[in-house]
């Protein structure tokens, strides 16, 4: 859902000149030429990965609910969170893929993960592509960008903590707002504009869906609404025990928090709002390549190569590792390509934390 919180910026002494970085043509050419044979998605891998993630996630969730051992429930809950988080991360692929090359995958993803987790595909499709638009990235029109590095230090923990409430907000969105929005076109427009996008920019307003996308949206939203109402009803009547309901909420909150931490370090968040070149966008984004192992858990489904993805948004997730190896080997150490790679999560969190503590000369907004 689109957040409505306001995050203040700190006073600053010098603005990062991210928007003034010219494109490095050698890097862009190498990225395009070296990866032409990597653009085809592998349907069997997509389906196997998604189904395995769902089986592990839901299986571990059932174990967490059924177990009488607190320790086993906690461990199973963590496994469930990681499995469902990986499955949920495929929404990023769904928003980019050519659906003719992976027929039925969007429907399968919505059925297995999107609707059960109350984050259906329409909340990202039509939103995420705006983040990749060259003239929108890092500007006020980018739904997935806030200059977090230029804001006050207290905004970072708030940015993470507020995500823990996402499951409750999503249940309210689909169990309450969806049915009520059918009663008033004006209220429906507000729900679509403000509460139907996975966005972090509080100023973002999405447009009403049209034609085929509107019909697809309505079908999926009806399924999500019925599921949310059913879940609330089962919990309220005691058919679903309170302990089980709280475990489900806890696992879902864990998914939201881990994803928010990943979002926090996915970019450097140093752009003040001016349009940026592709190279500048790349340098404001983050790769966490091997040998680091933990990014496979907190940045799954290719998200550890987020900067490379901004160079080549059409590459399927399973091709990004090979693409990174080829481009890294082809470009010398002076290329800006190597400047977007970082060793791991702690250093990235420290970097953005230190950025918020620097004195600045811009007025708070």
UniProtKB/TrEMBL annotation:
Superkingdom, natural source: Bacteria
Limits of the Fatty acid desaturase domain: 74-335
InterPro entries per record: FA_desaturase_dom (IPR005804), Fatty_acid_desaturase (IPR012171)
Transmembrane segments: 45-65, 71-88, 154-175, 225-252
Keyword Membrane: yes
One Pfam family in the UniProt entry: FA_desaturase
Keyword annotations: Membrane, Transmembrane, Transmembrane helix
Protein name as catalogued: Fatty acid desaturase
Native organism: Sphingomonas cynarae
């Amino acid at each position: 859902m689109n957040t409505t919180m306001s995050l203040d910026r700190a006073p600053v002494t010098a603005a990062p000149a991210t928007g003034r970085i010219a494109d490095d043509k050698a890097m862009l050419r190498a990225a395009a030429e070296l990866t032409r044979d990597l653009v085809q998605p592998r349907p069997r891998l997509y389906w196997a990965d998604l189904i395995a993630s769902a089986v592990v996630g839901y299986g571990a969730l059932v174990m967490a609910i059924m177990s009488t051992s607190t320790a086993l429930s906690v461990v199973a809950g963590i496994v469930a969170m990681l499995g469902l988080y990986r499955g949920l991360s495929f929404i990023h692929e769904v928003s980019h893929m050519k659906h003719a090359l992976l027929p039925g995958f969007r429907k399968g993803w919505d059925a297995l993960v999107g609707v059960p987790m109350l984050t259906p595909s329409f909340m990202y499709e039509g939103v995420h592509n705006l983040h990749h638009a060259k003239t929108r990235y890092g500007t006020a029109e980018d739904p997935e960008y806030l200059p977090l590095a230029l804001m006050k230090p207290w905004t970072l923990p708030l940015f993470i903590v507020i995500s823990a409430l996402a499951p409750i907000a999503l249940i309210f969105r689909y169990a309450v707002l969806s049915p009520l929005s059918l009663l008033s076109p004006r209220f429906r427009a507000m729900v679509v504009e403000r509460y139907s996008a996975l966005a972090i920019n509080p100023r973002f307003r999405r447009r009403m869906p049209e034609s085929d996308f509107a019909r697809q949206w309505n079908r999926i939203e009806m399924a999500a609404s019925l599921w949310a109402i059913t879940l609330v009803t089962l919990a309220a009547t005691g058919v679903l025990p309170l302990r089980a309901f709280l475990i489900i909420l806890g696992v879902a909150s864990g998914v939201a928090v881990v994803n928010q931490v990943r979002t926090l370090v996915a970019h450097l968040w140093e752009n003040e709002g001016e349009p940026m070149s592709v190279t500048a966008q790349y340098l404001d984004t983050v790769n966490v390549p091997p040998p680091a192992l933990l990014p496979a858990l907190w940045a799954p489904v290719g998200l550890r190569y987020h900067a490379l993805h901004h160079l080549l948004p059409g590459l399927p997730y399973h091709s990004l590792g090979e693409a990174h190896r080829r481009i890294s080997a082809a470009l010398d150490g002076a290329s800006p390509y190597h400047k977007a790679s970082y060793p791991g999560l702690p250093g990235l969190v420290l970097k953005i934390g230190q950025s918020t503590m620097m004195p600045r000369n811009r007025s708070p907004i």
